[in-house]
Amino acid sequence: MFEKVLVVEDFDVINSGIKIALDEIGITNVDYISYCDEAFLKIKNAFLKGEPYELIISDLSFENDGTPQKLKSGEELITKIREEFIDLKIIVFSVEDKPYTIQNLYKNLKIQSYIWKNRNGLKELKKAIYNTSISNEFYISPELQTTIHPKKAVEITNYDISLIKYLSQGFLQEVISKKLKEKGITPSSTSAIEKRLKFLKEHFNANNPAHLVAIAKDFGLI
Prior knowledge:
By secondary structure, this protein is of the alpha/beta class. It has helices spanning about 10-25, 35-50, 75-85, 100-110, 120-135, 160-170, 175-180, 190-205, 210-220, and strands at about 5-10, 30-35, 55-60, 90-95, 115, 140.
């Protein structure tokens, strides 16, 4: 089991819950930090002193209280950590459930676990800590399993990719409809295109068409 842990979380009530969970599994050497910049400096200083942290538990979102910060989110902190500490074990504990965010953390930033802050969050966090201490297998809250298992997720078709490509080129739905008709691709009506794009935005938790394009690029779809 881990002997030295850093928790990066800015809400005291959440920290209290995490402390209880860690106490229950016998982890008592724990530091709690509320700012990402300070967390990275603490990780680096611990390493330089020869007393490195064995596990980082971090939230993704942090409230802006006016304190200047270079690293403004947990994702930025983890990206920074991975630049220097590729093997440091990291568990994310967050309310964020957007698939593309989780995919990036899992595939690109190589975190060890992703736990959803919900009713069973602390229980799942303890499971994740134990799993991370004995295994290299990625652990994720059961409710979010589909975000990392494509076979369980909605299939993205060539038709979908074509729509997103046209969006990336700046075409409006009416123009996309015309282009699909020219190529004999169906469905090609404006209403069908609008409906499918609405579905894709919801599936990827995209805020708008430009956001959908950016997510598709992150996933390597276009």
